[in-house]
Amino acid sequence: MGLLAVQKLKKLLMNSVDAKVCVAGVNVNVDPRAERPYFDDVSPRNVSTVVGQSAVLRCRAKHIGNRTVSWMRKRDLHILTSHIFTYTGDARFSVLHPEPSDDWDLKIEYVQPRDAGVYECQINTEPKINMAVVLSVEDESLTPAPQPPVRSSAAAATIWGSQDVYVKKGSTISLTCSVNVHSSPPSSASVLWYHGNAVVDFDSPRGGISLETEKTEGGTTSKLLVTKAALTDSGNYTCVPNNAHPASVSVHVLNGEHPAAMQTSNRASSFLTSQLSCAALTYLLSSMACR
């Protein structure tokens, strides 16, 4: 086969969907996708769910070789996952990739209204190829508040320290939650954090909010960090595992006197009041004795 014929064959392989070429006088059907990655477009491009439920956005990538499949949120161009790793502090996002399948599905747990929008499954070819999936979320007012499922009455979350946490304005709020769920292999349980009735938004414009999660055979430890605490960060914080009872603490962001000083002041005031009362009682008894 001459050089021109080889070049023609290569061009057909790269540009045709179903090419028919002639090699040594024999007609051969060639599918160029066998050489290049592509999306097996059999999954729905529109996914609907309601607040508090889970959503799975499906992506089947064929013949990726040593390339990487990623998920990106279109509204802020935030890379959520790459290969099997998650690149967001929001623990609700994860990749479903059972080996050795071609499926790279994005799972979103406890879906919130802000999750609605366009997500792209991408393969890092040159140029990059992508497939968009639109997630629709029903209005929160039409659905009941999400209740975390409880699989075992013995499994429970515990937040370290006091039930009332006091921090100064501008400092860091640090809350650590332990979940005593034992399993082998290490527990895949996810942990959500609520501030009041809303899930903590790690991608909010406020910034400075992060999560550190450690999973072992003994359970899961989740540490919530909120830097540069503002008065609006005060309130009830709840650690919500997906397979155990939740736990809550009350956070107080102080703009002035430290609570220890306030408690000392209160004790001093109580002591003074007690002394004055004793003095008054002694005076009355003495007066009555003189009569």
Automatic annotation (TrEMBL):
One of its GO terms (cellular component) is neuron projection membrane. Gene3D superfamilies: Immunoglobulins. InterPro entries: Ig-like_dom, Ig-like_dom_sf, Ig-like_fold, Ig_sub, Ig_sub2, Ig_V-set, Immunoglobulin_dom, Zig-8. One of its GO terms (biological process) is synapse organization. PROSITE patterns: IG_LIKE (PS50835). Residues 37-143, 148-250 form the Ig-like domain. It holds the Pfam family V-set. It comes from the Eukaryota. This is Defective proboscis extension response.
